[in-house]
Every structure is written in C-alpha cells, then in structure tokens.
C-alpha cells in the first residue's frame, strides 16, 4: 500500500470512527403549505428507530452523521435527508405525492387560480367558464357535473333532449307555447331536487356568460364545447333565487379559449415562452442589507461604544457564528486599527470553531478580502474535520494553488482522484469529480514549469470561454440559478429537493456543495446571473461564493470572486453579470 493510500485509509477511518460515536440532536418543524403537520413519521433508514411529529409539527431525534432520516406521511412525498456533522435543525416542507395507478396520474394539489385556468381552458375539458369566473369541475369544492360537448347527440330533436340523455336523474317538462310556468315556454329540464312535485323549479341556462330562463334552442348542438350542471343549492349561492332549480352552464366552441397572439392556435402552455426575461418585473438588485444589530454598531461614535454594544449583543446573539462574522466585517471596515476585528474573530473561533459551515463562510470572506493565507488556514481546519468530503480536497487544493504551492495542490487532486478510482459506491464520474478533474487539468496546463512537467504531459483543456463556479457553505441550501443570455432568454439550474433530490443526495454522499458552468463564445454579449433562494431548513443564512474565470485554461486566464449572504426567500435577485467577448 502506498503512503498516499495509507494516509487516506487512516483519514477515512478517523471520520468513520467520529461518525459512529457522535450523535446529533436534530430538531425541527414539519409543515404542509406552511401549516404544521402532526403525526409525520420520522425514522432512520435501515433501523427500527422512529418517532412522530407532535400536534404542532415539532420533533426531536438523535442521529449520526451519514444516517438518512426519512420523513413520511400519507398523501405526501417521502423526504430523505442525509445527516451531516453540522445537522442540528431540519425544518421540512412536505410536498403532495404523485401516484400512477393503471396509467392514470392522481395528484393532490392546490386549486388553480383564475389566470391559470384561463390558460388551461383549451387543453382541459373539466374547466368551464361561468359568469362568476372559471371553475374546474374536478376540484370545484361543491357538487358539479360536466359533459364534453362531443358526447352530445347532434341528431337529437332539440338541445333539451340532447342534454337530458347525458344528465342522470333529470326529467323534461314541456310548457308548450302558452307561457305557463311563470311565462316559460317550450321544454325545460328539471334537475333532481329542483323544487317540489307540485311546484317544480326548472333549471336556468347560462350560455357563454349570458343567462336564459328558457332553453337556448337557438344553439347548434355541434357548436357546444362543454356543459356543466350546478344543482340548486350551489347555484343559488352564486346566481340568486332565480337559480333555485339549478343552472346548466354551456360554453360554445372557440368562444372562451385563449389563443396565441396573432394566430388562431390554442395557447400552448408547453412552449418555452416563459424564458423571455423581463428584468423590470421579475428581478431585484442584490443588496447587502445590514441586520439591525449591525446598524446598532454603526451608530456607535467611538471604538469603546462599539465594543460595549458588541459585548451586549453577543450575550444574546452569540449562539450564531454568523453574528460574529457580521461583527468581524463591521470592525474590519470601520475600526481595523483597533484590533477588535481580531478579537471578534478569536471569539468566533473559540465558540464555533467546530462548525465547518461557519469556517467555510469565513474562508469565503477572507478570499473576497484577498487574504488568501487566512483562507487557506481555514480550509486546512475544514479538511481536518471533513477528511472524506470531496469538497474538502477541492477547496484545500485550490487554496494551495492560490498561495503558489502548486505541488501540494496537485498532490491533493491526485489523492482524491485515486480514492474515487477505488470507490464503487457513489456512482459515475460527475459533480465534484468533474470539477476536480477540470481544475487539476487546468493546473497542469498552466503551471508546467513550476511542476517540472514537459509539454504534452497533461490532457488538453476542454474549455473555451467563461467558466463560472458556484459554491455554498450550507449543503441544505435550496435555490434556482437563472442564466440570462444576451438575447434575454434564460435557463434555470434548480437545486431543490423537489426537483433534484438525486443530485442533492449525491452531494451529501460525496461531500460537496458546488457546481460549474461554461459560457462558450457562441453567444457574445452580456450574461446575467440571478438567484431565487428558498432557504436551508434552518434559521441560518447561506453564504454563496461565485468565481468567474475568463479565458479559462489559457495563459491569459483571469478570475473574479464574489460572495453573497443569502437570507431573503422567494425573491428573484440579480447577483452579477459578465461580458462574453466575441471570437
């Protein structure tokens, strides 16, 4: 066994021993559309251990790093979360379950709004337009029958006869031409429950929003698109006493369908029209808004006053490492010569030095400041705490490279790649593996002389353009990254359990939280990067680091680094833009 492999085995054994002897106490709340969900089953995969949430949706469970927690509830999608060393709070939002039964898809979901039903009308026969709005007969919330116009017999004597044939429990009454029944003439339909035997109440009709008390015999049956029938009680609530016998709602063909602009085609929801970017209505600028406690610090007129405020604040907020990080940034920018920034940093490390997420956020901060040696020291600490994480190898190797120690960087890349060659558990060469391969090849390509290599000793770099790498300190972070090209078309990269649970599981098992993207030179101009942040299952912010490499893999390669503190939820936010030059 080589020295490198012996070292790797020792490190992996150390991590395994740690994970087997240190339980995490994990707490959280399970919700369904924001409401607490009681009696959710929570278990540890592969064991008989399990609990349920209480009446307020709360739970507490003991689990070890690399255990998999399973959250299950009837009618909801099962959620699986890989426990990490830092996992303390997991707030879970359950999603409706989709089941396929005999080729029929059944989905529990929220009702569509009026705009969505308008768009869906042309494709979904269960939606009908009424004078009080669109309703979907499948989930209207009250009794309603629907008929596809194609099912009506076009050869029927009249429309009443055609409708009765498709309406069980109805009968026809003929008022003739004498104006009986309160002025009614012709045939009428009596829906079960419409009045009494001695005083029948016939149904009224609504045709494309117009109300008729007598049957609309003027309609050509072939022109009827769809029909819905509301019984008396539901009808009176919406139409008044005139509808005591119920309402027969008729939509004719072509009248209620939203069409493509400038054409007679039905509105196509599958078409990717929605990737046209409108910056005025969809995106806000990213703002480094200061928390209230930082504003209190800024109000101080002297270092002594600021220190007094800090001492008071930390007694309340010191349980969060990110409070110290904000305080450190404040003192570094305003009173660096006072030494308070170093004091705050020491106190943060003393209290939260065992938290890899906090150390990574601090390392990002140092990198943005340009203090690469301080960042490297932190990546060393993270590596010691997470020696089996692919991200630990990648971060430390990159940091060695940034500090000019190219041989150490290459050695770490090689160690990780060697360990993955021996690994038959975690799948194909993708994710962190592809990132490390790209970066090790790049190092070999650009630092031949420093590494005492000859030309041709490394593989050719496959990149030709701008490379963007996103990294986040909290592996539970969920977000969408939006790439807007120079033609104002966008694409989304989704990082949520709902959309990409397999990828997030892969990240947890291999131990990484980063992704790389290439903007080739085929579409020159301004590219904009936006983000919509959904949270991280805890109350902590997420720190996002974005590194942009221009002319990646060439001697003229340059990079820019930006760090963002994410805390605002469900808001599409502009992060930055890059200029992609033409060939």
Question: What is this structure, in a nutshell?
Answer:
With 583 residues, this protein is an alpha+beta fold. The two termini are 49 Å apart.
Question: Could you give the topology of this structure?
Answer:
Blueprint: H1 3-21, E1 24-32, E2 35-36, E3 41-44, E4 50-52, E5 58-63, E6 68-72, E7 79-82, E8 92-94, E9 98-101, E10 104-107, H2 114-120, E11 127-130, E12 133-136, E13 145-148, H3 159-164, E14 170-174, H4 180-183, E15 187-191, E16 204-207, E17 210-212, E18 224-230, H5 232-239, E19 247-252, H6 279-282, E20 284-285, H7 292-298, H8 303-317, H9 321-334, H10 340-352, H11 356-369, H12 372-385, H13 390-402, H14 406-421, H15 432-446, E21 465-472, E22 478-484, E23 490-495, H16 497-510, E24 514-520, E25 525-535, E26 542-550, E27 558-566, E28 572-580
Parallel strand pairs: 1-8, 16-19, 20-28
Antiparallel strand pairs: 1-2, 1-5, 3-4, 3-6, 6-7, 9-10, 11-12, 13-18, 14-15, 16-17, 18-19, 21-24, 21-26, 22-23, 22-25, 25-28, 26-27
Helix pairs in contact: 7-8, 9-10, 11-12, 12-13, 13-14, 13-15, 14-15
Short key terms for the protein model shown above:
alpha+beta, Serine Threonine Protein Phosphatase 5, Tetratricopeptide repeat, 3 domains, 5-stranded mixed sheet, 16 helices, disordered N terminus
């Amino acid at each position: 066994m080589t020295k490198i492999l012996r070292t790797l085995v020792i490190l992996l054994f150390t991590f395994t021993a740690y994970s087997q002897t240190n339980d995490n106490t994990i707490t959280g709340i399970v919700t369904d559309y924001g409401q607490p969900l009681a009696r959710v089953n929570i278990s540890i995969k592969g064991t008989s251990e399990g609990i349920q949430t209480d009446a307020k949706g709360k739970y507490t469970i003991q689990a070890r790093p690399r255990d998999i927690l399973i959250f299950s509830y009837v009618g909801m999608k099962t959620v699986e979360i890989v426990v990490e060393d830092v996992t303390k709070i997991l707030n879970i939002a359950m999603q409706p379950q989709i089941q396929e039964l005999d080729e029929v898809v059944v989905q529990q979901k929220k009702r569509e709004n009026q705009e969505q039903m308008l768009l869906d009308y042309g494709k979904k026969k269960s939606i009908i337009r009424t004078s009080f709005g669109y309703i979907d007969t499948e989930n209207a919330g009250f009794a309603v029958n629907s008929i596809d116009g194609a099912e009506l017999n076009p050869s029927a004597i009249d429309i009443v006869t055609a409708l009765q044939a498709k309406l069980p429990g109805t009968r026809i009454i003929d008022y003739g031409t004498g104006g009986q029944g309160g002025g009614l003439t012709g045939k009428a339909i009596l829906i079960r429950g419409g009045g009494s035997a001695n005083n029948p109440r016939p149904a009224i009709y609504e045709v494309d929003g117009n109300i008729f008390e007598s049957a609309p015999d003027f309609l050509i049956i072939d022109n009827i698109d769809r029909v819905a029938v509301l019984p008396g009680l539901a009808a009176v609530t919406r139409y008044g006493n005139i509808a005591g016998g119920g309402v027969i709602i008729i939509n004719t063909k072509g009248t209620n369908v939203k069409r493509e602009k400038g054409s007679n085609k039905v509105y196509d929801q599958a078409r990717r029209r929605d990737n046209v970017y409108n910056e005025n209505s969809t995106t806000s600028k990213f703002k480094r808004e200061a928390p209230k406690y930082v504003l209190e610090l800024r109000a101080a007129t002297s270092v002594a006053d600021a220190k007094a405020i800090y001492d008071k604040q930390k007694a309340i907020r010191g349980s969060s490492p990110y409070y110290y990080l904000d305080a450190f940034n404040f003192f570094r920018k305003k009173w660096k010569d006072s030494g308070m920034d170093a004091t705050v940093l020491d106190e943060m490390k003393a209290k939260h030095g065992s938290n890899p997420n906090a150390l990574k956020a601090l390392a990002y901060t140092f990198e943005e400041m340009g203090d690469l040696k301080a960042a490297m020291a932190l990546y060393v600490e993270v590596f010691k705490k997470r020696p089996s994480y692919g991200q630990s190898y990648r971060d430390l190797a990159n940091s060695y490279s940034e500090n000019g120690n190219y041989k150490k960087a290459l050695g770490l890349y090689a160690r990780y790649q060697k360990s993955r060659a021996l690994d038959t558990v975690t799948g194909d060469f993708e994710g962190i593996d592809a990132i490390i391969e790209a970066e090790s090849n790049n190092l070999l390509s650009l630092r031949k002389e420093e590494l005492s290599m000859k030309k041709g000793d490394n593989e050719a770099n496959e990149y030709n353009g701008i490379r963007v790498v996103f990294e986040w300190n909290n592996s539970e972070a969920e977000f969408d990254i939006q790439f807007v090209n120079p033609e104002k078309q966008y694409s989304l990269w989704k990082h949520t359990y709902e959309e990409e649970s397999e990828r997030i599981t892969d990240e947890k098992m291999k131990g990484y939280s980063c992704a790389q993207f290439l903007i080739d030179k085929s579409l020159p101009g301004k590219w904009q990067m936006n983000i919509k942040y959904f949270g991280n299952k805890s109350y902590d912010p997420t720190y996002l680091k974005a590194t942009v490499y221009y002319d990646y893999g060439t001697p003229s390669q340059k990079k820019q680094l930006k760090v963002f503190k994410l805390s605002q939820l469900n808001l599409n936010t502009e992060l930055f833009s890059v200029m992609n030059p033409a060939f």
